[in-house]
Amino acid sequence: MTNSINEITTDAQLMMLIGTNTTEAHPIIGYKMRQAKRNGAKLIVVDPRRIDLAEEADYWLRINSGTDIPFLNGLMHIIIKEGLYDKNFVETRCENFEALESTVKNYTPDYVSKLTGISEDDLYAVARLYATTDRAMLFYTLGITEHICGTQNVMSCANLAMLTGHLGRPGTGVNPIRGQNNVQGACDMGALPNVYSGYQPVINTDVRKKFEQAWGVSLPDKVGLMIPQMFDAANNGQVKAMYILGENPVLTDPNSNHIRKGLDKLEFLVVQELFLTETAEYADVILPAASFAETNGTFTSTERRVQRVRKAIEPVPGQGNWQTIMAMSAKMGYPMEYNDPEEIWDEMASLSPSLTGITYERLEEKGIQWPCQSCDHPGTACLHAASFTRGKGLFQGIDHIPPQEVPDEEYPFLLNTGRILQHYNVTTPYSKGIQSMWSEEHSEVNPDDACKLGVENGDMIKVTSRRGSITARAKVTDRVPPGMIWMSFHYAASPTNAITSEGLDPITKTGEYKVAAVKVEKA
Fold this sequence. Notes:
With about 525 residues, this protein is of the alpha/beta class. It has 3 domains: about 5-175, Dimethylsulfoxide Reductase, domain 2 (3-Layer(aba) Sandwich), CATH 3.40.228; about 180-220 and about 295-310 and about 340-375, no CATH class; about 415-520, Barwin-like endoglucanases (Beta Barrel). Helices cover about 30% and strands about 20% of the residues. The strands form 6 sheets. The protein has a 6-stranded mixed barrel. The chain has a 5-stranded parallel sheet with strand order 3-2-1-5-6, sandwiched between helices. A hairpin with a 3-residue loop joins strand 7 (about 195) and strand 8 (about 200). Helix 4 (about 70-80) packs across helix 8 and helix 13 (about 225-235) crosses helix 15. It is globular and about 65 Å long.
């Protein structure tokens, strides 16, 4: 997030939510949004489903799935045409405005309305409201990123915020809410194939030499594989072994039958886990993992806030995950000699400019938001106050990119997926308490479609894509529009990701979970 969570209630005058069911996927932030709405902030919800926050919104725009770029371009078309953009911000803080203007001039309200399903009146009203509100925060989550054009969707959000000057001040910003606990921290620590900690590129010679000197080894000068590429390589025999820690790709990754085949073809699989997950069933060796409650260290929240985590109980396996990794490293010929997680943090922070000023001592009292370059720096609550990382913000002219797979005569329904509050951040329901609250998948079907299919509330339905079939219990509701069904991915008995699209964003390799063509029949 460019800004901070508390600014929702203290500074924001308007919240625009695009592709985020915040109250269910991020309930604490969702509660703050409700607080802000009660205190007078305006709320715009852009979502094909009538999510809970749509009921409270000043504007709920039921967008056609996969048309976020035309929608955002349509808003910018109106804002530029009516002279509502922040001319000073555009001239002094940004560049390449002409390319943006040239692109969005083609996205007239009439054209955008036909593509998105949003009325022209609503397009005008929302464009004017967002542009003329002094402090507006834009939020998005996986409804923006889980498309083959996810990167371009994010860039379009940035275009809109820069065009209206909604960056670099409290109560503004482009604010992605991260999809899982500590996924921000994992990325910050370098758990990506193209960067070291602090987002330092592996292909940068000076950066690589710095880490080589610190670790006393030679490091590769090429970018590694992302997860979908790993499983492609497993399927074609190039990757022969994997070590999976705290991840369940059989249930959570798109086109999961492809994942299963890749795991089957591996010569050796190690899984370190708390439970015998669907992925762990494929393992040659299962190592016991320690949970958050058995762990000392740090987590980093979606607002870039590094926070201490202190174990409540001793690790059931007898040691922390970091100690297991150290022991394996030693067996493989590279001894690691850390005495505790603080030593690991100190080394990593010393090598990462954005984290240098964050120490365990400073974290004792409260979390600190990076970038924080020195021990007397307070941390950064709001990014881009004076300038952008690259200097000037770069506008990009981005055209509509349709989903890889859309409904057709054979597969006439659009499948959209997401999460439910009862299984918040849980991918496999091992908890009896959680199971008792919501024990099976309930696939949302519009009443008009249910009538045509001969399906009543509670009936079992069979949902089939080009990749396979699953069964689930139908929930007949107008939360979804005709022609669309919605499912979560939490249940092993109804593994939704066995039928999701194989489409990937070419840059991030994120799966297109939000759009797949399916057929539905009564089971």
